[in-house]
Protein backbone atom coordinates (compact mmCIF):
# COMPACT_ATOMS: atom_id res chain seq x y z
CA UNK A 1 0.00 0.00 0.00
CA UNK A 2 3.10 2.18 0.14
CA UNK A 3 2.88 5.25 -1.96
CA UNK A 4 -0.86 5.44 -2.08
CA UNK A 5 -1.03 8.03 0.66
CA UNK A 6 1.07 10.36 -1.39
CA UNK A 7 -1.21 9.94 -4.41
CA UNK A 8 -3.20 13.04 -5.14
CA UNK A 9 -6.76 12.17 -5.94
CA UNK A 10 -8.14 14.13 -8.85
CA UNK A 11 -11.55 15.58 -8.11
CA UNK A 12 -13.00 14.06 -11.29
CA UNK A 13 -11.06 10.96 -12.39
CA UNK A 14 -12.06 11.24 -16.10
CA UNK A 15 -11.73 7.54 -16.78
CA UNK A 16 -13.36 5.54 -19.50
CA UNK A 17 -15.54 2.66 -18.37
CA UNK A 18 -12.83 0.13 -19.20
CA UNK A 19 -10.11 2.13 -17.42
CA UNK A 20 -12.41 2.32 -14.41
CA UNK A 21 -12.94 -1.45 -14.52
CA UNK A 22 -9.17 -2.07 -14.65
CA UNK A 23 -8.67 0.20 -11.67
CA UNK A 24 -11.42 -1.60 -9.72
CA UNK A 25 -9.77 -4.96 -10.43
CA UNK A 26 -6.37 -3.78 -9.21
CA UNK A 27 -7.77 -2.08 -6.15
CA UNK A 28 -9.92 -5.01 -5.09
CA UNK A 29 -6.87 -7.29 -5.19
CA UNK A 30 -4.93 -4.79 -3.03
CA UNK A 31 -7.84 -4.32 -0.63
CA UNK A 32 -8.33 -8.05 -0.06
CA UNK A 33 -4.59 -8.48 0.49
CA UNK A 34 -4.57 -5.61 2.98
CA UNK A 35 -7.57 -7.02 4.85
CA UNK A 36 -6.14 -10.55 4.95
CA UNK A 37 -2.64 -9.57 5.99
CA UNK A 38 -3.52 -6.92 8.53
CA UNK A 39 -6.98 -7.62 9.97
CA UNK A 40 -7.27 -10.90 11.92
CA UNK A 41 -11.08 -10.70 11.62
CA UNK A 42 -10.84 -10.87 7.81
CA UNK A 43 -8.07 -13.48 7.81
CA UNK A 44 -10.32 -15.75 9.89
CA UNK A 45 -13.38 -15.04 7.77
CA UNK A 46 -11.58 -15.69 4.48
CA UNK A 47 -9.99 -18.85 5.85
CA UNK A 48 -13.39 -20.08 7.03
CA UNK A 49 -14.76 -19.47 3.54
CA UNK A 50 -11.79 -21.20 1.95
CA UNK A 51 -10.85 -18.06 0.03
CA UNK A 52 -7.23 -17.00 -0.31
CA UNK A 53 -6.26 -13.51 -1.49
CA UNK A 54 -4.48 -15.32 -4.36
CA UNK A 55 -7.88 -16.47 -5.63
CA UNK A 56 -9.01 -12.88 -6.18
CA UNK A 57 -8.00 -11.55 -9.59
CA UNK A 58 -10.55 -8.79 -9.86
CA UNK A 59 -14.16 -7.71 -9.50
CA UNK A 60 -15.47 -10.87 -11.18
CA UNK A 61 -14.38 -12.75 -8.06
CA UNK A 62 -16.03 -10.41 -5.55
CA UNK A 63 -19.00 -12.74 -5.06
CA UNK A 64 -16.71 -15.37 -3.52
CA UNK A 65 -15.84 -13.04 -0.63
CA UNK A 66 -17.80 -13.24 2.62
CA UNK A 67 -20.04 -10.31 3.49
CA UNK A 68 -19.44 -8.00 6.46
CA UNK A 69 -22.36 -7.01 8.67
CA UNK A 70 -22.67 -4.35 11.32
CA UNK A 71 -22.10 -7.10 13.89
CA UNK A 72 -18.41 -7.05 12.88
CA UNK A 73 -18.12 -3.48 14.13
CA UNK A 74 -19.73 -4.47 17.42
CA UNK A 75 -17.61 -7.58 17.90
CA UNK A 76 -14.37 -5.90 16.92
CA UNK A 77 -15.07 -2.71 18.91
CA UNK A 78 -13.24 -0.43 19.13
CA UNK A 79 -10.34 -0.97 16.72
CA UNK A 80 -10.28 -4.65 15.76
CA UNK A 81 -11.07 -3.82 12.13
CA UNK A 82 -8.10 -1.49 11.76
CA UNK A 83 -5.44 -2.62 9.28
CA UNK A 84 -2.77 -0.17 10.43
CA UNK A 85 -1.03 0.64 13.71
CA UNK A 86 -2.61 3.25 15.93
CA UNK A 87 0.21 5.63 15.05
CA UNK A 88 -0.96 5.71 11.44
CA UNK A 89 -4.54 6.59 12.33
CA UNK A 90 -5.09 10.31 11.84
CA UNK A 91 -8.75 10.54 12.73
CA UNK A 92 -11.56 8.59 14.36
CA UNK A 93 -15.26 8.95 13.66
CA UNK A 94 -18.15 6.91 14.97
CA UNK A 95 -21.67 6.28 13.85
CA UNK A 96 -24.39 6.75 16.39
CA UNK A 97 -25.55 3.26 17.16
CA UNK A 98 -29.20 3.24 18.17
CA UNK A 99 -28.35 0.54 20.70
CA UNK A 100 -25.07 -0.33 22.36
CA UNK A 101 -21.64 0.74 21.24
CA UNK A 102 -21.09 3.01 18.26
CA UNK A 103 -19.31 1.74 15.14
CA UNK A 104 -15.79 3.13 15.20
CA UNK A 105 -14.10 4.11 11.95
CA UNK A 106 -10.45 5.11 11.49
CA UNK A 107 -8.72 7.02 8.71
CA UNK A 108 -5.11 7.38 7.65
CA UNK A 109 -3.85 10.62 6.21
CA UNK A 110 -4.38 9.18 2.74
CA UNK A 111 -7.91 8.04 3.60
CA UNK A 112 -8.78 11.59 4.69
CA UNK A 113 -7.35 13.00 1.48
CA UNK A 114 -9.35 10.60 -0.68
CA UNK A 115 -12.50 11.27 1.34
CA UNK A 116 -12.12 15.02 0.88
CA UNK A 117 -11.64 14.42 -2.84
CA UNK A 118 -14.83 12.36 -3.23
CA UNK A 119 -16.83 14.95 -1.29
CA UNK A 120 -15.34 17.71 -3.47
CA UNK A 121 -16.24 15.66 -6.54
CA UNK A 122 -19.74 15.19 -5.14
CA UNK A 123 -20.24 18.89 -4.52
CA UNK A 124 -19.01 19.67 -8.03
CA UNK A 125 -21.53 17.18 -9.43
CA UNK A 126 -24.21 18.93 -7.35
CA UNK A 127 -23.38 22.17 -9.14
CA UNK A 128 -21.31 23.81 -6.40
CA UNK A 129 -18.36 25.73 -7.86
CA UNK A 130 -15.00 26.84 -6.48
CA UNK A 131 -15.54 30.22 -4.88
CA UNK A 132 -19.11 29.43 -3.79
CA UNK A 133 -20.07 29.64 -0.13
CA UNK A 134 -21.35 26.43 1.42
CA UNK A 135 -23.18 26.61 4.73
CA UNK A 136 -22.61 23.30 6.46
CA UNK A 137 -25.42 22.48 8.86
CA UNK A 138 -24.47 18.86 9.37
CA UNK A 139 -23.43 18.03 12.90
CA UNK A 140 -19.71 18.24 13.65
CA UNK A 141 -18.04 15.75 15.94
CA UNK A 142 -17.96 11.99 15.79
CA UNK A 143 -20.71 11.99 13.14
CA UNK A 144 -19.07 11.99 9.70
CA UNK A 145 -21.49 14.51 8.15
CA UNK A 146 -20.00 17.73 9.47
CA UNK A 147 -16.27 17.20 8.98
CA UNK A 148 -16.81 15.18 5.79
CA UNK A 149 -18.65 18.02 4.05
CA UNK A 150 -16.26 20.51 5.60
CA UNK A 151 -13.07 18.98 4.20
CA UNK A 152 -14.65 18.35 0.81
CA UNK A 153 -15.84 21.95 0.50
CA UNK A 154 -12.35 23.23 1.20
CA UNK A 155 -10.84 20.68 -1.20
CA UNK A 156 -13.14 21.97 -3.95
CA UNK A 157 -11.91 25.50 -3.36
CA UNK A 158 -15.24 26.73 -2.06
CA UNK A 159 -15.79 28.58 1.24
CA UNK A 160 -17.17 26.52 4.08
CA UNK A 161 -19.25 28.11 6.83
CA UNK A 162 -18.99 25.54 9.64
CA UNK A 163 -22.35 26.12 11.33
CA UNK A 164 -23.04 22.60 12.51
CA UNK A 165 -26.58 21.49 13.34
CA UNK A 166 -29.22 23.64 15.00
CA UNK A 167 -29.09 27.29 16.06
CA UNK A 168 -31.55 28.05 13.30
CA UNK A 169 -31.95 31.78 13.91
CA UNK A 170 -28.22 32.15 13.41
CA UNK A 171 -28.25 29.92 10.33
CA UNK A 172 -30.75 32.29 8.76
CA UNK A 173 -28.76 35.40 9.66
CA UNK A 174 -25.51 33.94 8.36
CA UNK A 175 -27.12 32.76 5.14
CA UNK A 176 -28.46 36.24 4.46
CA UNK A 177 -25.34 38.13 5.53
CA UNK A 178 -22.85 35.85 3.76
CA UNK A 179 -25.01 35.11 0.74
CA UNK A 180 -24.52 31.34 1.15
CA UNK A 181 -24.90 29.65 -2.24
CA UNK A 182 -25.44 26.16 -0.91
CA UNK A 183 -26.74 24.53 2.26
CA UNK A 184 -25.74 21.05 3.37
CA UNK A 185 -28.09 19.39 5.88
CA UNK A 186 -30.69 16.69 6.38
CA UNK A 187 -33.89 16.90 4.32
CA UNK A 188 -36.02 17.33 7.43
CA UNK A 189 -33.86 20.25 8.53
CA UNK A 190 -34.43 22.04 5.20
CA UNK A 191 -38.14 22.11 5.94
CA UNK A 192 -37.55 23.09 9.55
CA UNK A 193 -35.38 25.99 8.41
CA UNK A 194 -38.03 27.12 5.93
CA UNK A 195 -40.67 27.05 8.69
CA UNK A 196 -38.43 29.05 11.02
CA UNK A 197 -37.80 31.63 8.32
CA UNK A 198 -41.53 32.08 7.86
CA UNK A 199 -42.07 32.45 11.60
CA UNK A 200 -39.60 35.31 11.52
CA UNK A 201 -41.44 37.00 8.70
CA UNK A 202 -38.86 35.98 6.07
CA UNK A 203 -39.78 34.47 2.75
CA UNK A 204 -37.71 31.25 2.66
CA UNK A 205 -37.67 31.49 -1.13
CA UNK A 206 -35.75 34.75 -0.82
CA UNK A 207 -32.87 33.09 1.07
CA UNK A 208 -29.71 33.07 -1.07
CA UNK A 209 -29.37 29.25 -1.33
CA UNK A 210 -29.43 27.90 -4.87
CA UNK A 211 -28.57 24.32 -3.98
CA UNK A 212 -29.23 22.16 -0.95
CA UNK A 213 -27.17 19.00 -0.54
CA UNK A 214 -29.31 16.67 1.50
CA UNK A 215 -28.58 13.30 3.01
CA UNK A 216 -28.30 11.14 6.15
CA UNK A 217 -32.04 10.39 6.14
CA UNK A 218 -34.15 8.54 3.58
CA UNK A 219 -36.53 10.82 1.72
CA UNK A 220 -38.90 10.59 -1.18
CA UNK A 221 -39.41 12.52 -4.39
CA UNK A 222 -42.52 14.32 -3.09
CA UNK A 223 -40.51 15.48 -0.08
CA UNK A 224 -37.74 16.70 -2.38
CA UNK A 225 -40.29 18.68 -4.38
CA UNK A 226 -41.59 20.16 -1.15
CA UNK A 227 -38.05 21.26 -0.20
CA UNK A 228 -37.33 22.68 -3.66
CA UNK A 229 -40.57 24.67 -3.62
CA UNK A 230 -40.17 25.88 -0.02
CA UNK A 231 -36.63 27.22 -0.49
CA UNK A 232 -36.60 27.76 -4.27
CA UNK A 233 -33.53 25.54 -4.65
CA UNK A 234 -32.25 22.49 -6.47
CA UNK A 235 -32.15 19.68 -3.90
CA UNK A 236 -29.38 17.13 -4.49
CA UNK A 237 -29.26 13.79 -2.70
CA UNK A 238 -25.85 12.83 -1.26
CA UNK A 239 -25.28 9.33 0.09
CA UNK A 240 -22.75 7.82 2.39
CA UNK A 241 -22.26 5.92 5.60
CA UNK A 242 -19.59 6.06 8.25
CA UNK A 243 -18.73 2.37 8.00
CA UNK A 244 -17.55 2.94 4.43
CA UNK A 245 -16.23 6.51 4.71
CA UNK A 246 -19.02 9.00 5.48
CA UNK A 247 -20.86 11.29 3.04
CA UNK A 248 -19.56 11.26 -0.54
CA UNK A 249 -19.98 7.60 -1.50
CA UNK A 250 -22.52 8.68 -4.13
CA UNK A 251 -24.39 11.78 -5.25
CA UNK A 252 -26.88 12.90 -7.86
CA UNK A 253 -25.60 15.09 -10.66
CA UNK A 254 -27.33 18.45 -11.06
CA UNK A 255 -27.66 17.80 -14.80
CA UNK A 256 -29.97 14.78 -14.51
CA UNK A 257 -31.02 14.60 -10.82
CA UNK A 258 -31.84 11.00 -11.60
CA UNK A 259 -29.98 8.49 -9.49
CA UNK A 260 -26.77 8.90 -7.53
CA UNK A 261 -23.40 8.28 -9.21
CA UNK A 262 -21.44 5.88 -7.01
CA UNK A 263 -17.76 6.86 -7.01
CA UNK A 264 -16.82 3.42 -8.19
CA UNK A 265 -13.08 3.99 -8.34
CA UNK A 266 -13.27 4.11 -4.52
CA UNK A 267 -16.34 2.04 -3.54
CA UNK A 268 -17.73 -0.99 -5.36
CA UNK A 269 -21.54 -1.43 -5.22
CA UNK A 270 -23.55 -4.65 -5.46
CA UNK A 271 -27.22 -5.38 -4.83
CA UNK A 272 -28.22 -8.52 -2.94
CA UNK A 273 -31.45 -10.13 -1.84
CA UNK A 274 -31.92 -8.88 1.75
CA UNK A 275 -33.28 -12.25 2.86
CA UNK A 276 -30.90 -14.70 1.17
CA UNK A 277 -27.83 -12.51 0.53
CA UNK A 278 -27.72 -13.74 -3.10
CA UNK A 279 -26.48 -11.24 -5.68
CA UNK A 280 -29.43 -9.95 -7.70
CA UNK A 281 -29.54 -9.50 -11.49
CA UNK A 282 -28.77 -6.00 -12.85
CA UNK A 283 -31.51 -3.45 -12.24
CA UNK A 284 -33.32 -5.29 -9.46
CA UNK A 285 -34.11 -3.69 -6.13
CA UNK A 286 -32.48 -5.10 -3.02
CA UNK A 287 -29.94 -4.34 -0.33
CA UNK A 288 -26.89 -2.27 -1.23
CA UNK A 289 -23.55 -3.95 -0.49
CA UNK A 290 -20.37 -1.84 -0.65
CA UNK A 291 -16.69 -2.72 -0.74
CA UNK A 292 -14.05 -0.08 -0.11
CA UNK A 293 -11.39 -0.11 -2.83
CA UNK A 294 -8.85 2.34 -1.41
CA UNK A 295 -9.35 2.44 2.37
CA UNK A 296 -6.02 1.85 4.11
CA UNK A 297 -6.95 2.13 7.79
CA UNK A 298 -10.09 0.02 7.63
CA UNK A 299 -10.75 -1.95 4.46
CA UNK A 300 -14.32 -3.23 4.44
CA UNK A 301 -15.33 -6.15 2.23
CA UNK A 302 -18.91 -6.45 0.97
CA UNK A 303 -20.62 -4.46 3.70
CA UNK A 304 -24.35 -5.09 4.05
CA UNK A 305 -25.52 -1.48 4.31
CA UNK A 306 -29.15 -2.25 5.13
CA UNK A 307 -30.17 0.35 2.54
CA UNK A 308 -32.71 -0.68 -0.07
CA UNK A 309 -32.06 0.58 -3.59
CA UNK A 310 -31.15 -0.55 -7.09
CA UNK A 311 -28.37 0.15 -9.61
CA UNK A 312 -29.19 1.81 -12.94
CA UNK A 313 -27.59 0.21 -15.94
CA UNK A 314 -28.22 2.97 -18.50
CA UNK A 315 -25.90 5.88 -19.22
CA UNK A 316 -26.51 9.22 -17.57
CA UNK A 317 -27.19 12.40 -19.54
CA UNK A 318 -24.30 14.12 -17.77
CA UNK A 319 -21.72 11.81 -19.37
CA UNK A 320 -20.18 10.50 -16.14
CA UNK A 321 -19.29 6.82 -16.45
CA UNK A 322 -19.93 5.86 -12.82
CA UNK A 323 -23.07 3.81 -12.36
CA UNK A 324 -25.99 5.29 -10.48
CA UNK A 325 -28.00 3.96 -7.57
CA UNK A 326 -31.58 4.96 -6.86
CA UNK A 327 -32.55 7.13 -3.93
CA UNK A 328 -32.59 4.97 -0.84
CA UNK A 329 -36.26 4.29 -0.28
CA UNK A 330 -35.96 2.25 2.88
CA UNK A 331 -33.72 0.30 5.16
CA UNK A 332 -33.91 -3.35 5.98
CA UNK A 333 -34.21 -2.33 9.63
CA UNK A 334 -36.92 0.18 8.67
CA UNK A 335 -39.18 -2.65 7.62
CA UNK A 336 -42.45 -2.74 9.51
CA UNK A 337 -44.56 -5.85 9.56
CA UNK A 338 -48.02 -4.74 10.46
CA UNK A 339 -50.55 -7.55 10.62
CA UNK A 340 -48.48 -9.63 8.28
CA UNK A 341 -48.07 -6.89 5.67
CA UNK A 342 -44.45 -5.85 4.98
CA UNK A 343 -44.11 -2.12 4.57
CA UNK A 344 -41.22 0.33 4.84
CA UNK A 345 -41.75 3.44 6.90
CA UNK A 346 -40.50 5.45 3.95
CA UNK A 347 -43.23 3.97 1.74
CA UNK A 348 -45.78 5.32 4.18
CA UNK A 349 -43.99 8.64 4.03
CA UNK A 350 -44.12 8.61 0.23
CA UNK A 351 -47.86 8.15 0.34
CA UNK A 352 -48.42 10.84 2.93
CA UNK A 353 -46.14 13.43 1.42
CA UNK A 354 -47.89 12.79 -1.88
CA UNK A 355 -51.17 13.99 -0.40
CA UNK A 356 -51.35 17.75 -0.92
CA UNK A 357 -53.23 18.45 2.28
CA UNK A 358 -50.69 16.71 4.50
CA UNK A 359 -47.66 18.52 5.89
CA UNK A 360 -44.40 16.50 5.73
CA UNK A 361 -44.46 16.02 9.47
CA UNK A 362 -45.80 12.80 10.83
CA UNK A 363 -45.09 10.03 13.27
CA UNK A 364 -45.84 6.35 13.24
CA UNK A 365 -46.37 4.54 16.54
CA UNK A 366 -46.18 0.76 16.60
CA UNK A 367 -47.50 -1.16 19.56
CA UNK A 368 -48.35 -4.73 20.39
CA UNK A 369 -51.71 -5.35 21.97
CA UNK A 370 -52.85 -8.88 22.78
CA UNK A 371 -50.13 -10.25 20.46
CA UNK A 372 -51.40 -8.11 17.59
CA UNK A 373 -49.26 -5.36 16.10
CA UNK A 374 -50.94 -2.01 15.76
CA UNK A 375 -49.91 1.05 13.80
CA UNK A 376 -51.08 4.55 14.55
CA UNK A 377 -50.26 7.51 12.39
CA UNK A 378 -50.23 11.11 13.56
CA UNK A 379 -50.19 13.80 10.87
CA UNK A 380 -50.49 17.54 10.55
CA UNK A 381 -52.62 19.08 7.85
CA UNK A 382 -50.77 21.47 5.58
CA UNK A 383 -51.23 25.06 6.73
CA UNK A 384 -52.87 25.97 3.44
CA UNK A 385 -55.23 23.00 3.64
CA UNK A 386 -58.95 23.65 3.91
CA UNK A 387 -60.10 20.07 4.38
CA UNK A 388 -61.57 18.87 7.65
CA UNK A 389 -59.72 16.31 9.80
CA UNK A 390 -62.36 13.72 8.95
CA UNK A 391 -61.87 14.23 5.22
CA UNK A 392 -58.10 14.06 5.65
CA UNK A 393 -58.34 10.82 7.62
CA UNK A 394 -60.49 9.31 4.90
CA UNK A 395 -58.04 10.36 2.17
CA UNK A 396 -55.04 8.93 4.02
CA UNK A 397 -56.84 5.67 4.73
CA UNK A 398 -57.86 5.30 1.11
CA UNK A 399 -54.42 6.04 -0.28
CA UNK A 400 -52.56 3.74 2.17
CA UNK A 401 -55.02 0.98 1.35
CA UNK A 402 -54.75 1.45 -2.41
CA UNK A 403 -51.00 1.91 -2.66
CA UNK A 404 -49.62 -0.26 0.14
CA UNK A 405 -52.48 -2.48 1.19
CA UNK A 406 -52.12 -1.40 4.80
CA UNK A 407 -54.73 0.06 7.07
CA UNK A 408 -53.58 1.89 10.17
CA UNK A 409 -55.41 1.29 13.42
CA UNK A 410 -55.70 4.98 13.99
CA UNK A 411 -55.06 8.25 12.19
CA UNK A 412 -54.77 11.27 14.39
CA UNK A 413 -54.92 14.67 12.70
CA UNK A 414 -53.33 17.30 14.91
CA UNK A 415 -52.88 21.08 14.70
CA UNK A 416 -50.02 22.34 12.50
CA UNK A 417 -46.84 22.63 14.56
CA UNK A 418 -47.85 19.97 17.11
CA UNK A 419 -45.48 17.21 16.01
CA UNK A 420 -42.03 17.68 17.44
CA UNK A 421 -39.50 19.01 14.94
CA UNK A 422 -35.92 17.80 14.81
CA UNK A 423 -33.49 20.66 14.94
CA UNK A 424 -30.31 18.66 15.52
CA UNK A 425 -29.48 15.23 14.15
CA UNK A 426 -31.58 12.76 12.26
CA UNK A 427 -35.34 12.95 12.34
CA UNK A 428 -37.15 10.15 14.16
CA UNK A 429 -40.53 9.30 12.73
CA UNK A 430 -41.12 5.69 13.67
CA UNK A 431 -41.62 4.91 17.33
CA UNK A 432 -41.65 1.19 17.94
CA UNK A 433 -43.02 0.49 21.40
CA UNK A 434 -43.24 -3.27 20.88
ZN1 LIG B 1 -25.24 12.13 -14.17
UniProtKB/TrEMBL annotation:
Write out the GO biological process terms. Answer: phenylacetate catabolic process
Q: Self-association or partners: how does it assemble?
A: Monomer.
What is the organism of origin for this protein? Halococcus thailandensis JCM 13552
A Gene Ontology molecular function term for this protein is: nucleotide binding
Q: Where is the AMP-dependent synthetase/ligase domain?
A: 85-290
NCBIfam families, A to Z: paak_haloarch (NF041878)
List, alphabetically, the CDD domains matched. PaaK (cd05913)
Location of the AMP-dependent ligase C-terminal domain: 340-434
Q: Does the keyword Nucleotide-binding apply?
A: yes
Task: Please give the Pfam families that the UniProt record associates with this protein.
Answer: AMP-binding (PF00501), AMP-binding_C_2 (PF14535)
Its UniProt pathway annotation is: Aromatic compound metabolism
Protein name, please? Phenylacetyl-CoA ligase
**Superkingdom as given in the UniProt entry:** Archaea
* Alphabetized UniProt keyword annotations: Ligase, Nucleotide-binding
Segments carrying the region annotation (Disordered) are: 1-22
InterPro entries recorded for this chain?
Answer: AMP-bd_C_sf, AMP-dep_Lig_C, AMP-dep_synth/lig_dom, ANL_N_sf, PA_CoA_ligase
Which PANTHER family would you find in this protein's record? BLR5969 PROTEIN
